[in-house]
Amino acid sequence: MSENQLINKEDLVVRFAGDSGDGMQLSGTLFSDASALTGNDIATFPDYPAEIRAPHNTIAGVSGYQVHVGNHIYSSGDKCDILVAMNPASFKSQLKWAKKGATVIVDADTFTEEALEKAGYADNPFTDELERAYTIVHAPITSFTERIGGEQGVDKKTADKSRNMFALGMIFFLTNKTLEKTNAYLERKFAKKPEVVKLNKAVLSEGYEYAEKLELIHSKIVDIAKADKMEKGRYRNITGNVATAWGLLAASEKSGRRLFLGSYPITPATDVMVELAKHKSLGARVFQAEDEIAGICSAIGASYAGALACTSTSGPGLSLKSEALGLAVMTELPLVVVDVQRGGPSTGLPTKTEQSDLAQALYGRNGEAPLVVVAASSSANCFYWAFNAAKIALEHMTPVILLTDGYLGNGSQLFRIPKMADMPEIKPRLAKENDPNYRPFRRDEETYAREWALPGMAGLSHRVGGLEKCPDGPLSTDPENHALMVHNRQEKVNRVANYIPDQEVHGNPDADLLVIGWGGTAGALTLAVEEMNNEGKKVAYTHFNYICPLPKNTGDIMRRYKKIVVCELNNGQFANYLRAQFPECPMTQYNKVMGLPFEVGELKAEFNRLLEK
Amino acid sequence: MEKHFVPKAEVEYTKADFTSDQMVKWCPGCGDHAILAALLATFPKTGYKKENVCMVSGIGCSSRIPYYVDTYGFHSIHGRACAIATGVKLANPALSVWVNMGDGDSMAIGGNHLIHAVRRNQDLNITIFNNEIYGLTKGQYSPTTKFGQVTKTSPYGTIDYPFNPGELVMGAQGTFFARTLDCVPQLTTDCMTRAAKHDGCSVVEVLQNCVIFNDKTHAAITDRAVRDDRTIVLEHGKPMLFGKNKEKGLRFNGRQLEVVTLGENGVTIDDIMVHDETIEDTGIHMMLAHMGGDLPVALGVIRNVKKVSYTQLYEDQMDEQMEKGKYKCMDDLLNSGDTWEV
What we know:
The structure holds two protein chains of two kinds.
Chain A: E1 7-9, E2 11-19, H1 24-37, E3 41-47, E4 62-70, E5 80-85, H2 88-94, E6 98-107, H3 113-118, H4 128-133, E7 135-139, H5 141-151, H6 156-160, H7 163-174, H8 180-189, H9 194-212, E8 222-224, E9 234-239, H10 240-255, E10 259-263, H11 270-277, E11 285-288, H12 292-304, E12 308-313, H13 315-320, H14 322-331, E13 335-341, H15 358-363, E14 372-375, H16 382-396, E15 399-405, H17 406-410, E16 412-416, E17 463-465, H18 479-494, E18 506-507, E19 513-518, H19 522-534, E20 539-544, E21 546-548, H20 554-559, E22 563-568, H21 573-581, E23 588-591, H22 600-612
Parallel strand pairs in A: 1-8, 2-5, 5-6, 6-7, 10-11, 10-12, 12-13, 13-15, 14-15, 19-20, 19-22, 22-23
Antiparallel strand pairs in A: 2-4, 3-4, 9-16, 14-21, 18-20
Helix pairs in contact in A: 1-7, 5-9, 7-9, 10-11, 10-16, 12-14, 19-22
Chain B: H1 31-46, E1 53-57, E2 72-75, H2 81-91, E3 96-102, H3 103-109, H4 111-120, E4 125-130, H5 165-171, E5 176-181, H6 185-197, E6 202-207, H7 219-222, H8 224-230, E7 231-234, E8 241-242, E9 248-252, E10 257-261, H9 283-290, E11 297-304, H10 310-324, H11 330-334, E12 340-341
Parallel strand pairs in B: 1-2, 1-3, 3-4, 4-6, 5-6, 7-11
Antiparallel strand pairs in B: 5-11, 8-9, 9-10
């Protein structure tokens, strides 16, 4: 390879696309892992259909996995430099994600008349114009893979399962990487199936060698910059859902409270439960309930009995949990509800990302039912926000909704591994056994949090429930008491603001334009703002993780700017929430409701338009 | 190995130890008063530590019961008591968890949670107060209201076929089912005590009278004049005899159960079925739970089968993984797999 001229690139985006079942998610993961292990920063974005195996070779069945590697990686990238399309349907549906001039690797063997027709092509798609616009590599992936399979005595159908390795081998050549890390992974993963290891390794290296012999792409080999500004420390790759699960486990260890998760499978949140179910040795008590309602209700019961209780779900599941959330508010029990948002309403777009559950999280209950809402803003920081949500729940005796989304949850990123000793303390507000002064709704003067008396503790027996109570515990329908209790529950949530850090402004703080974002859009917004400031434009940026209550200096920040744009993947739910609290601040909004994350390009176009206005 | 998770008390309790200071607000004459009394008499018999007793209820008249018992209590939301109790027991298996629900609460809005709690066989003591009506909302038909009955929401008679709670429990592979009458507190206490001692999910159905909205709904079997002939109290290992002088019995004729009289048509005690509450197959218990009409309604413990409880299985798995699991603390997990130094 040394004779080839390497192109040095700050970053590179690769998109793997094929039939669901073609192993595209695995190829993407193996490429991102190998990149991370060789010093690149990474971010990934799986873009897959809701169907497990939609009809073969149709557009409905196309599954994609985008990997962004390089230096200063904030998001999974807008458009790709290299596209792998394993069949005509993926070529047709994914070409729009390729940059002009991108390298496009297609499995030439799959472009049969029948497959072309299934993908909706009337003619050969490879027009001269198209061939000029991209570097299209017509690689005989299937036939080469099947040949190797044949040599090893493997039938065609089995061999076909390794086609993804051929494409991956080509990508490794094109990105000047070795096969070592992936070979090691294959040996580990299929340790009990040596024949699978042998075949995959052979196909992987065949793909690499095929690319090596292909002069067409020798001018395209890139050397991707290693991450240079990364904080020193030990790193790993992690998805948002795993990070969320680990954050909850960490909070359990720190607080000394058993972790309980009551949940029901729902895309894209299921992996939180799947991950926690593995960790009984760390005390994780996972319960797969009969439905979403039982998921949260079992968690409320577990909380009453003294656990760090959690439930994980996505939009429609959160709707089902609404009534029980009100019960958690009323009983003032600690509870963490993880909502991995997806496109709605109703079943909506189960596998696509959106931020449209915000209003539901803030307001979706009967009565005056305040609770704390926080949002993670990267796959890796799901760990800290899950930890933080648990800390707030336990110390302030309140349900907390943690909003992540499909993009964060399924996407992955580098994660600097913390030491548990460095994590903040968590001090649950436990009552003392046989305390003669214990009253179920006696409050701490500072936080307004009540004390947590657990069944099994002597001398503290009491009743909680959905009916209004008076501070001493018994039921009360007294009008003054109800007003007092409503006020106290709200005040308790408001006072959480006394324990959270000030909101920070990034970019150029002296700008005229303030960009506001929240939750999972931080990657694209950060990059858009950074690029604009590098281009000489003045843009300030603030990103919210604490949603309810807001940091106390939020109004001060907002009042400093002439122009404010609130960017979110919904029709303006956060913008309207801010408007209600800061009616003196005029703001515009930039919204996208397509089940897709923001692209840097579209954000910059909008910010430029606003600056010129 | 079978474990007993709930600690025993060192002192002997009396009914008074479990009586709360709250005013009982059920209607005068309501069957719930008698059920409460039976329950208060049950707790001392179980011997469990008082602070380890936790009552969980749903919504409805009967679900007010946690306020009237001086233990930990959770008066939750409509239909969800089983789900909440499941979490309580999973978080702390050392608690004796009691679930109290009405017929609408447990079998309409909460039907799903009931059958799944029963199916899992988690160690919960479930009591269903069955008055065949929605009382707290003032008289609408419930899933157990008799077919054809006129109620506020069925002015022309219900066209809903009712559930039989016992059949639901058997259908869900339940391991313990008993039926009792509110007006026979001794039988209720016996059933509840045995339910508490059962390792697994127990369901006790109490046929309860709502004096205001469904008065005398069970009168056809509970009235003193007919009770001995219309009900049969089953006892394990004993022939299924009933009637004022135990002159009648149940015989299985090869197809179904039938009532026979001792001494008539050559019937002797040897023809009478002997109750075996421990048969794993639900068939005969299902038939017994189904009885009514020409057959006497079965009372007492109908089914009591040994099967490892969910609680036991759960704790065994936890213990095993705690001992064998690779990761002993979060630092282990955080640093597992592929990691590298920057």
